[in-house]
Amino acid sequence: MNRKKIVLSENAKVVLRKRYLAKDEEGNIVETPEEMMERVAKAVAQAEKNYGGDPEYWAEKFYDLMAELKFLPNSPTLMNAGRELGQLSACFVLPVEDSMEGIFDAIKNAALIHKSGGGTGMSFSRLRPKGALVRSTSGEASGPVSFMKVFNAATEAVKQGGRRRGANMGILRVDHPDILEFIRCKEDDKELTNFNISVAVTDEFMEAYKKDDTYELVDPHTGKVTGKLKARGVFDLIVEMAWKNGEPGVIFIDRMNAANPTPHVGQIESTNPCGEQPLLPMESCNLGSINLKAFVKDGEIDYEGLKEAVHTAVRFLDDVIDVNKYPLPEIERMTKANRKIGLGVMGFADMLIKLGIPYDSEGALKIAEEVMGFIQREAREASKELAETRGAFPNFEGSVYDVPGARPIRNATLTTIAPTGSISIIAGCSSGIEPIFALAFERNVLDKQRLIEVYPLFEEEMKKRGLYSKELMEEVLEKGSLKNIPGIPEDVKRIFVTAHEVSPEWHVRIQAAFQKYTDNAVSKTVNFPNSATREDVKKVYLLAYELGCKGVTVYRDGSREEQVLKKGAVRNEEPAESACECEVAPQTIKPRPRPSITYGSTEKVKIGCGNLYITVNSDENGICEVFTNLGRAGGCPSQSEATSRLISLALRSGIDVRSIVEQLKGIRCHSTLRQMANNKDIKVLSCPDAIARAIERAIGQNLGEGGNGVEYLKKIYASSDTATTLDSPSNDKGREKGPKAVCPECGSVLEHDGGCVVCRSCGYSKCN
């Protein structure tokens, strides 16, 4: 292969070295960026053998497209193509069935996907609500949110391919009886840290909102109506939570299903973690993005070059489907039956600046529709050309494309606007369809040294006009925008507008413009200043629905406390990167060492397997460990030991003991329940239930009878009886300036865009 030299920025080199280039067993980098792209190109081009194509020819074409930074595939493809793992998709959706077997099958499948480098989306809408009867045990269901916590814990334990922590999207329909608990489930930033959550909003709900009416809640297990809620009250609660910390987002589920290309195969119920890829259960999708910055020449869009790039990229992504090593055979079958791909864009803000068009303008909307419309048309043409030699996707018959006289098409969907945090840094362009985040930022090179990096197109413009100086760049860094800097021409201020200067309305209008010509959905963050009101957030959600968006994500500056990390407090270990990268990486929690001396007590509790001896020990900081031992053979000693070890770990990691009790108490075991009927001495439901009650007794506080636990639950569920009158004050201005999310590696400010987070200073990213 005639390898072209790749021109990369320093930030791109940092990202590649940390997260993409192959390493040996000692962690030494063993390939160059050129060798990485050659590895990817050759591996993907092997699919050409299946269709009589020339793998060497197409490997050259694929390599050139990537080496020129005109197109890059999603992160798993760059990381894994041509290597042993071989899992190349970023997006997966799993079904969560309403049975214990189905739930834990989904947990196992999610773990396998996370281990392989993918992110998972799941709807919990099939699960019966909290308190519903479980006939097999004569007990009560614990509800979707309780099982989400189990998924979250499993995700925390699995690091993706040794590189990235898994990420999940959790979705619940707005008509599920547990919707109020779900909306609040991330009110505490420390809960469900490996989940992004979205409410699946129906058209019926939106009609009820418009009419200020109620809507019905339906038990998914029985299909029976369980109650009614005031639509505006629920909507206001969604807004309240999103105003507080950016979640939940909303997806317009009926709109997604209206665009479902294969309704005869199944209904869409969830998306991938960033929300841009609606998928059927057990379906995956591989993504890639075209760098629009590379297609502006002499102030004009190079449509011929863009056409060639689109056709090559569609072929590349279709080939990925064939060479991919799927984590589950069911996913491979469904993916190959529909052959969905997601071709998107990055560098849109760069394109506008090179064309001299402000981001928040009618001209930008025109370019968005024109460019994305062109990409969608050419992508469909490329897919139809592939179908002529390779055949249509197997589920073509009965699909929306199956109309008399229509040409077959190779892929059920073709276009997606995904977050591009890491790959846009590699490509040296702006992220996705977001405006630029900053014109200047500080990069820490060595201790006590700082380097101001300037957005390249701004630096170029300032030098061209004879205005560039280090002093001016210092001022730009300090003020964050050009708005209040004297001596900058007005036309420059208008063109070089940053994300926080763009009004929320324009964020949504740009998203809607791209959605018109996107088969799947658009991942974008609507940025708000910290002073934004709840009413501001509400207007954006409503505008997104009115303009035809399939979902919307908001972020109010400084609204997530967990993101405020001290500048310079860099951990030694490299932070885990996420598959969906929609939140700042959680800080590593290290349990305090076990004290050399503890004090406590041991009690004997009768369970279905015999006697369980439970020891609860404390030190000066409170309860610090739990031990269990079964008094005779039988039962599940390994399970109870594992439970007690995890409890001890959690206690010494600072987890509230009451939260631990809430998770354990009420868990049922078949063996214990069977024995209860004949043995009145058995007064617990299972080993975990017995441990919870022992901990309660150890702290002298029965959380089930008037302690803090009850007050906490009252707070959580207070609105269930008053949801029809929920209201959100609309004049709360909040703090004028909130705390900034900063990079855990270098302490620089992180940017929230595309539903994700990225550090433009050192290259740290949680994005694909």
Summary tags:
alpha/beta, 10-stranded mixed beta sheet, 17% strand, 25 helices, single chain, 768 residues, 3-stranded mixed beta sheet
Overview of this structure, please?
- The chain has 768 residues and is of the alpha/beta class.
- The chain is built from 25 helices and 28 strands.
- Strands 1, 2, 3, 8, 9, 12, 15, 18, 21 and 22 form a 10-stranded mixed β-sheet that branches. Strands 6-7-23 form a 3-stranded mixed β-sheet. Strands 24-25-26 form a 3-stranded antiparallel β-sheet.
The fraction of residues in strands falls at 15-25%
Query: What is the mean pLDDT?
Result: 86
Structural class: alpha/beta
* Strands, total number: 28
Can you lay out the helices and strands and say which pair or pack?
Blueprint: H1 10-19, H2 33-45, H3 55-67, E1 71-73, H4 75-80, E2 91-94, H5 100-116, E3 119-123, E4 133-134, E5 139-140, H6 144-157, E6 159-160, E7 164-165, E8 168-173, H7 179-184, E9 195-201, H8 203-210, E10 214-218, E11 225-230, H9 231-245, E12 249-252, H10 253-258, E13 270-271, E14 278-279, E15 283-291, E16 296-297, E17 300-301, H11 303-323, H12 329-338, E18 341-346, H13 348-355, H14 362-390, H15 421-427, E19 440-444, E20 450-454, H16 456-464, H17 470-479, H18 490-495, H19 504-515, E21 525-528, H20 534-546, E22 551-556, E23 577-578, E24 599-607, E25 610-619, E26 622-630, H21 637-651, H22 657-664, H23 670-676, H24 687-698, H25 708-717, E27 751-753, E28 756-758
Parallel strand pairs: 2-3, 3-8, 7-23, 8-9, 9-12, 15-18, 21-22
Antiparallel strand pairs: 1-15, 2-15, 4-5, 6-7, 10-11, 12-22, 13-14, 16-17, 19-20, 24-25, 25-26, 27-28
Helix pairs in contact: 1-15, 2-3, 5-6, 9-20, 11-14, 14-19, 19-20, 22-24
